[in-house]
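Need tokens for this chain, all 104 residues.
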Amino acid sequence: MKCCQNESASLEQAQRCVEDCSAPVQAAHNFVQQELGQFQERIQRCLLDCQDKAKDKLNPDASDREMDKTKNEFESCAIRCVNDHINLIPNLVKKIQKSLDMMK
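Here are the structure tokens for all 104 residues:
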């Protein structure tokens, strides 16, 4: 890091140099965190939709059989959500890599 090699730089100049050098890394970190956060939110929304569908199907006096059926439908829906999102990971990785390459 050129900042550390300049022995005549003041403390303030050295700090500014370090901040400037770390800014691209911080920007990349923030971008990756944002993309992963949005991905997690999508999974959560899908799972919440499964949960809502299950709640809508159950009535207060549901039998054990109806409860089991609804539970199985919820689990199938949740598994479908996860599998659908697993399939999105390769494109997400490509998008992140492309954006990080453009930040260089």
